[in-house]
Specification:
By secondary structure, the protein is mostly helical. About 55% of the residues lie in helices and about 0% in strands. About 30% of the residues are buried.
Length: about 130
């Protein structure tokens, strides 16, 4: 498992360190990406935290169940479309193989309308 850095998470009651205010990824999506990264890293401890946060922030039990099921099956395309799907697919490649990333890997993220400021948050989430 990759090292965890508390400073990579948004400020809150348990982490007073604020991050880049230019980050506009919704918190529920950050937690969902964190859940997927935890699944990819086979880290139950991290998954328990991120998935509970995502479920709470999504506020729709049926939607949260679908997301959880599809992420565990490594099928984010069955629960997401557009920019959200592009981010999850990018994380899926980046997490286990950061040294194999190429410039072309970010193209679908950009084409989905995700700017570099938002995708940099994804990169931090994926390599935790």
């Amino acid at each position: 498992m990759r090292a965890f850095a508390a400073a990579e998470h948004d400020a809150g009651p348990h982490n007073p360190v604020p991050l880049d205010p230019a980050n506009t990824l919704p918190i529920w999506l950050q937690e969902t990406i964190g859940s997927y990264v935890s699944i990819l890293n086979d880290c139950e401890y991290s998954l328990a935290n991120h998935s509970a946060n995502a479920r709470h922030l999504i506020s729709d039990a049926a939607r949260a169940d679908t997301i959880e099921k599809e992420l565990h099956a490594h099928r984010p395309q069955d629960a997401f479309v557009g920019g959200e799907l592009a981010l999850l697919q990018y994380a899926e490649k980046l997490t286990p193989s950061p040294a194999k990333m190429q410039e072309s890997d970010i193209v679908p993220v950009r084409e989905a309308g995700i700017d570099d400021a938002r995708s940099s948050k994804l990169t931090r989430l994926s390599v935790m």
